[in-house]
Design a protein that fits this description.
Layout (H helix, E strand, L loop, with lengths): L1 E3 L2 E6 L4 E6 L7 E3 L11 H8 L10 E5 L12 H8 L7 E5 L8 H14 L4 E5 L3 H11 L2
Parallel strand pairs: 5-6, 6-7
Antiparallel strand pairs: 1-2, 1-4, 2-3
Helix pairs in contact: 2-3, 3-4
Length: 145
């Protein structure tokens, strides 16, 4: 769990889901809380390998962004919304954008990510996943340009 300035992010790997909520800030700053099941079958090396460029490589150059974290009643239509999601991602070589439960995206939003950002950073791989037909249509449309 991550709490910071009135916001709470909860990642629950037991039901693979993420929750975001606003709350009354109790203190200034950021608090991180986590727990590990002592009977877990996961290994730390498996977690690290997911974000490394390859076996024996120790650089963290992959990231996974869950776009749905930001969909609190929002439809993604603008370039500025896309830029906020992309902020800092130019440091990675591989980006996974998870569009699970995102109903639609606008052409400007998709264009900023899949054409403008991609052209500015041709060595970065962007892989969209969990797209519905509407999101897939818009991404494919701008990718052809």
């Amino acid at each position: 769990m991550l709490e910071s300035f009135g916001h709470r992010l909860v990642v629950d790997n037991t039901i693979p889901d993420v929750f975001f909520a606003d709350q009354k800030p109790s203190k200034k700053g950021t608090r991180v809380i986590f727990s590990i099941n002592s009977r877990s079958k996961r290994h730390l090396s498996d977690v690290f390998e997911k974000f490394q460029s390859g076996p024996g490589q120790y650089d963290f150059d992959r990231t996974e962004i869950q776009v749905r974290l930001f969909t609190l009643g929002t439809i993604y239509i603008s370039r500025s919304q896309a830029r906020r999601i992309l902020l800092g991602l130019d440091k990675f070589k591989s980006i996974i954008l998870d569009f699970d439960r995102v109903p639609t995206v606008g052409q400007a939003f998709a264009d900023e990510i899949f054409r403008v950002f991609k052209n500015a950073h041709p060595d970065i791989s962007i892989q969209p996943i969990n797209m519905n037909e509407s999101v897939k249509f818009m991404i494919e449309r701008v990718a052809k340009q």
